[in-house]
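User: Here's a structure from my thesis project, written as structure tokens. My advisor, Dr. K., wants to see whether a designed sequence matches the one we expressed. Can you design one independently, without my sequence as a hint?
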């Protein structure tokens, strides 16, 4: 359709140029009618610029910012071993849903159990020693210094006992968060080293899409705005969310700021790592005056459009002082022609406008236009204020 319009404009411009050439080469009649016709033809060829227009119309409008982002989990955890030992048992696999505190795997715990048993025995011995020391101290058969020494040894052993119990608990690998096992990195029988990564857990509720938005949108976007997202992996489906938070600073290198959108998908269809096209809706109007974006002229800090108005062309200016005064009087037919009212023709006029929201290829006009005004969309580069135009097609 776009190619057809451009070809139509090219044909019309060629026709206008051809008419001008033929008019200049035409023979003059004995009564001067040839000159008059040629002048008339020249005038039309010079002023009638072919253009396409679109009418300003009222319609519902949804203003939004659109960007792309990869989905990522709000919470993600790498589960690492906090004790060393042979992996005896795996309780989960990739894709399993787990809860915080759930046992994911079991390491060999025999040595840790023996250490706990030894610490427990030493603790009981020191508790008994401290009880005897207390009795002797009350009977004034031992010094306060010796009694305090036994108490300090008891406190130390209690701490060692608790430490051994903690080391034993580390042989049970547990989930630190709720989520889904996205990766298992070990196998049963592996010798697990301290701090070795064993699992990765992703919490898919919510999923986040982080947009890098130009700074001009900083005053428009707000937390809580509705968001829609289309995912390439799930064609034909749209997921809804909200703007969760916005970065308060603009990256000086890119001129953008981060907008984090949050999605809760109860169906579980969207996953971390998927690529999505995100649209943040920041305004909705039921009755906005809109025109195609291609009709705007933005220059010198102003925004304008070229509007086509049907009006009678202004008469030619009177001859200036330097022109001949002995020109022949106009023929009777010429007087009749001048007395005949001219028909209105389409004239282009530049008009400044105030724009509002933009959505796709449409833009809202808040001031400067009325409904059904004709705005030039194609060919406006060849048009100036007051130029006569030829409207090829009114695009609705």
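Assistant: Designed independently from the structure alone:
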């Amino acid at each position: 359709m776009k190619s057809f319009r451009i070809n139509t404009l090219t044909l019309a411009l060629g026709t206008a140029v051809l008419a001008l050439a033929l008019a200049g080469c035409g023979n003059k009649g004995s009564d001067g009618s040839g000159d008059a016709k040629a002048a008339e033809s020249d005038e039309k060829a010079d002023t009638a610029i072919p253009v396409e227009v679109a009418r300003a119309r009222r319609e519902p409008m949804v203003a939004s910012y659109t960007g792309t982002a990869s989905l990522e989990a709000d919470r993600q955890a790498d589960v690492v071993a906090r004790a060393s030992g042979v992996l005896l048992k795996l309780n989960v696999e990739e894709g399993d849903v787990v809860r915080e505190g759930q046992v994911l795997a079991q390491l060999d715990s025999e040595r840790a159990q023996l250490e706990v048993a030894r610490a427990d025995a030493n603790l009981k011995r020191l508790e008994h020693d401290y009880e005897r020391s207390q009795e002797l101290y009350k009977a004034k058969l031992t010094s306060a210094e010796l009694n305090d020494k036994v108490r300090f040894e008891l406190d130390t052993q209690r701490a060692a006992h608790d430490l051994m119990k903690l080391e034993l608990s580390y042989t049970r690998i547990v989930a630190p968060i709720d989520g889904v096992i996205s990766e298992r990195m070990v196998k049963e029988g592996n010798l697990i080293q301290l701090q070795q990564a064993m699992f990765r857990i992703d919490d898919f509720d919510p999923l986040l899409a982080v947009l890098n938005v130009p700074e001009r949108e900083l005053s428009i976007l707000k937390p809580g705005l509705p968001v829609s997202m289309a995912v390439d992996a799930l064609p034909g489906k749209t997921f809804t969310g909200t703007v969760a938070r916005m970065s308060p600073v603009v990256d000086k290198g890119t001129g953008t700021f981060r907008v984090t959108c949050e999605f809760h998908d109860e169906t579980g269809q969207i996953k971390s790592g998927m690529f999505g096209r995100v649209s943040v809706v920041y305004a909705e109007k039921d009755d906005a005056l809109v025109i195609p974006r291609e009709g705007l002229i933005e220059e010198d800090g102003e925004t304008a459009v070229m509007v086509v108005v049907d009006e009678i062309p202004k008469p030619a200016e009177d001859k200036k002082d330097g022109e001949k005064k002995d020109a022949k009087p106009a023929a009777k037919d010429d007087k009749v022609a001048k007395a005949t009212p001219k028909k209105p023709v389409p004239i282009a006029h530049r008009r400044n406008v105030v724009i509002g929201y933009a959505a796709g290829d449409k833009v809202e006009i808040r001031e400067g236009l009325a409904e059904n005004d004709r705005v030039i969309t194609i060919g406006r580069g060849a048009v100036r204020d007051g130029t006569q135009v030829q409207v090829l097609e009114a695009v609705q």
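When you compare it with your expressed construct, this may help: The radius of gyration is 42 Å.
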